[in-house]
Amino acid sequence: MIIQIIHPDGVTSTNVWNRECGSEDNIAVTFVDGAPAIACATPTTGTYSPSSPLSIFSGMQADGDWTISITDNWDAIVGTLNDWSIEVCTVTTQLSVGEFSQSGQFSLYPNPNNGEFTVSLRTASENVGIEVFDIRGRAVYTQLFKNVGGVLNQSINLSSVQSGMYLVKVSSGIQTATKKIIIE
User: Fold this and answer.
1) Model confidence over 88-98: pLDDT tens digits?
2) Where are the beta strands (DSSP E) in the chain?
3) Domain range summary for the chain, segments of one domain joined by +
4) DSSP-derived secondary structure for 80-127
5) 106-183 belongs to which CATH class?
6) 20 to 30 A from 150, CA-CA: which of 82, 86, 101, 181?
């Protein structure tokens, strides 16, 4: 069996299930990039990585009619699709007037990384907030650092999160900025 998700543009698609397992009876699966590989069972349930990444849709418009295509190439087998849904998460990043304007005031390194990276920031404020969000917009890290003395070089350890793209937001006084980081 092949299960394909097709973007509203009618052209861009990805296979989330591509002939995995010997029997496709009773599948109740959530596909998330970076999740573990599919564990075949009867029933097959849980959260797994798709056969091909869903990130192919990153940066594309989410509006419109998404399509699922299911192909069963086995003779004389009949199946029923009971339910399916798609959750498209978007993140709008607007940089405000109070953004860190000078080059070198805010940096993240190394990027990409293995879950450990450094936030480097020069600021006139004594307190700095750091938030990290996953691609769905969920906070995976939040910390307020007090009395930084104008310079913050803070090591962040997110080695327990899944691989993927994250947004790191720093706030210092009225200034804020958001940067992307890749955890492998």
Assistant:
1) 776 554 444 44
2) 2-6, 13-18, 27-31, 44-48, 67-71, 106-109, 116-122, 128-133, 139-145, 151-157, 164-172, 175-183
3) 2-71, 106-183
4) -----------------TTS--STTSEEEESSSBSSEEEEEEE-SSS-
5) mainly beta
6) 181
